[in-house]
Amino acid sequence: MRILYPCNPLEPKEPDQPFTDEFVAVQKLGIPASLFAYDDLSFGDFKPRPHIQSGETVLYRGWMFNIIAYQEFTDFIRKKGGIPVTSPADYTLCHHLNQWYSACAELTPETVFLEKGSNYLEQISNLNWDAYFIKDFVKSNTDAQGSIANTPEQAVKIINLIEQYRGELEGGVAVRRVEQFQPQSELRYFVINGNAYSPNAEIPTIVKTVTQRIEAPFYSIDIAKTTEGIERIVELGDGQVSERKTWSLDRFVSMLVQQ
Ligand SMILES: Nc1ncnc2c1ncn2[C@@H]1O[C@H](COP(=O)(O)OP(=O)(O)O)[C@@H](O)[C@H]1O
Ligand SMILES: [Mg+2]
Hints:
Blueprint: E1 2-7, H1 20-28, E2 33-37, E3 57-60, H2 67-79, E4 83-84, H3 88-95, H4 97-100, E5 111-114, H5 120-127, E6 132-136, E7 148-149, H6 152-166, E8 173-177, E9 187-192, E10 195-197, H7 205-213, E11 218-225, E12 231-238, H8 249-256
Parallel strand pairs: 1-2, 1-3, 3-4
Antiparallel strand pairs: 5-8, 6-7, 6-8, 9-10, 9-11, 11-12
Helix pairs in contact: 1-8, 5-6
């Protein structure tokens, strides 16, 4: 297995921050790693183009790709003779909320999906909920307004803010019921080839349940506890584009190299 990390073409020897320590650590454990120019999604003439040996499986660790760019990325890996660990379909399954939602519906806040550019106000008003947690299929809103709206009008404002700050809504809009999570209770677990890994010694039952329902080579599961002490899925993510969060570098890379 080889791992690809993103870099700036003007600094072709160093991965983008914050991936340097991981890039160094995996190589110390004997896993080859290469750099590629992330911003050159056409994989044209920009250097460096990643070194990949024919027949190697290839994993990625870095910035998020949208679905189209991930497809192009894996096409590129295949053209160089590599075998992507995560197919575009597997990537989409965990990266886009609307894809994994139905398999885990009772374990995560109730969610309604709105088509991009549809009549948001009408659809959100029809829900008649007390509050609305708004995100696109990938990320919440991180500006001062946050992601929680108390009225449908505020919800539409958040959708517009997401579009404005990020340039596009990825996939569509997800409107989620607001649940009361205990502050600081969220933990990230990883699943590799059906095996769950924990940042501490324990693997909660809810993580084992997700592992049985979601089949993808490498993904993350974020679990928070409600004020009543019930464990809930906050979100899944593709493992390649998930931050390590509370994981120590050592613990994370020793999990990675077991692939
Ligand atoms: N339905 C919800 N109700 C209340 N808080 C939520 C809800 N969904 C997410 N959150 C809180 O907002 C944070 C960000 O939401 P998340 O879905 O993880 O988006 P992001 O992709 O931006 O991390 C979570 O870590 C959690 O604390
Ligand atoms: Mg999150």
